[in-house]
Amino acid sequence: MNGSHGFQPRPARVDARGWGWRHAGRAAWAVAGLDIRIEPGERVLLLGASGSGKSTLLHGLAGVLGGDEEGESAGSLLIDGAPAAGARGRAGLVLQDPDSQVILARVGDDVAFGCENLGVPREQIWPRVHDALSAVGLDVPLERPTKALSGGQKQRLALAGAVAMRPGLLLLDEPTANLDPVGVREVVTAVGRVLDATGSTLVVVEHRVDAWLGLVDRVVVLGTADGGTTVVVDGTPEGVLGRKGEALAAAGVWVPGFGPKHPSPPATTAAEPLLQADALAIARVKRGRRVTDAAFAEHVIARGISLTVCAGEALAVTGPNGAGKSTLGLTLAGLLPAAGGAVHAEAPLARGLGSDPIKWKSRELLTRIGTVLQDPEHQLLASTVRAELEIGPRALGLDQAAIDARVNPLLERLRLDRLARANPYALSGGEKRRLTVAAALATAPRMLVLDEPTFGQDSRTWAELIGLLAELRDEGTGIVVITHDDEVVTALHARRFELGARA
To answer: Could you tell me if residue 265 is inside a domain?
Structure first.
């Protein structure tokens, strides 16, 4: 990194004094009465069970929680002694979804975007862009299309955009959740390089902690007690995870060496095919469109895919970012057309319909193929959690008693019952994920296509979700799970289908 451009930021100090935040329309506070201090230059790993307020704290420090219409705050949340909401440019936030953070079409323009919004003089912006890209190890031309980057590269691009603004406080909210192992290493290495060069204060939220233990010097675990948010334990990584590891794991914190229990393998061997792909080519095109021969090379991500989804079996689709896993899932689910070859539903799944799921109506898909998208917010429709779960059963014409019989057990099983009246958009990332899984299950489909169903989960909710999927598998549901988490593959005793990297 080029020091001649004045790149060195001043590390920030963080103080929360009785701070809290409550989303509009929620009775419960997402964070309440939190007291914590983070000294300049500290590198903090923030842990806690799902819904403990970790992301809310980061978003509060980044000043993106919104105004009075979005919720209400209590106490004080300070950066360098000033309210965090007004400390423009002092904090840089990187989120979990690489695609959601890419704003502009070219790499250089995307990195420059934040600087431009801060009013940085133009003659200073491009030296900052070059320095930031160098700091994160993203050696690509400034003109490179952002859509051509891998997931790990996009996450480093988002990090570069934050670094270019020269924040004294770097906030990372599960930045590796949607990345393959190579991408995880790329991002962690890039963060380490940035911190070594700048000395910035770091707060990172990550459920899986292994990758970050060599980088952080402090671990803080949040919890709830008597309606408030507390620091359950605070200390060095060795002290917190070593001496308190077993107790933390029991509370849902991911602790190396204290992983959750896996379900038993299926009692019987899957035999009945539900869906087959034959020489399938997949492409990111809109539903109802076919890829023309002229556009084939531009749109197609992968081809020659042949696989079978069977009743009573879990099929895990794995592979690097950019290989087309999510696109394959949408194609199998009847939400994207095939670009070549065929997707063929067998009679036990089609149940009187034609063999091509892309031709089925939405209501016909409900009881046949349930789908969970990678981004939960892309499929949230209702104003409350309960109403979200009732959409599918209501579309099937079920009466209220039958709807309740489906919805109530899902609310309880996936720990959403206390959130039944909450706005889905006010939930944590892990809670949103459990909600979309529950919504897919509410219509009792014969087959499930789940894209990263366990991201954002603490170890307890992860185990409960995996246990539920294993039960559905054993009851004869065909499950396709798209995942970067090898532990999901192992826990579900899944047959693996490895999708190769994009050429």
So the answer is: no
Sign of the CA dihedral running 415, 418, 420, 424? negative
Provide the pLDDT for residue 147.
86
Residue 503 lies in a domain: no
Distance set, CA 156 to CA 62, 252, 367 (Å): 19, 29, 40
**pLDDT class of 270 with cuts at 50, 70, 90:** low
In this structure, the answer to whether residues 207 and 105 fall within a common structural domain is yes
**Beta-bridge partner residues of 372:** 450
Q: Which residue range(s) make up the domain with 286?
A: 273-498
| 256 within some domain | no
54, 221 Cβ separation under 8 angstroms: no
Query: Does the pLDDT at position 357 exceed 60?
Result: yes
202 plus 349 within the same structural domain: no
Q: Which amino acid is at 50?
A: S
Which residues have C-beta within 8 Å of that of residue 349, sequence separation ≥ 6?
274, 275, 368, 369, 446, 447, 478
Beta bridge partners of 221: 47, 233
162 lies in the same domain as 72: yes
Cα 412 from chain centroid? 23
Query: What is the count of structural domains for the chain?
Result: 2
For residues 386 and 24, what is the distance between their CA atoms, to the nearest angstrom? 17
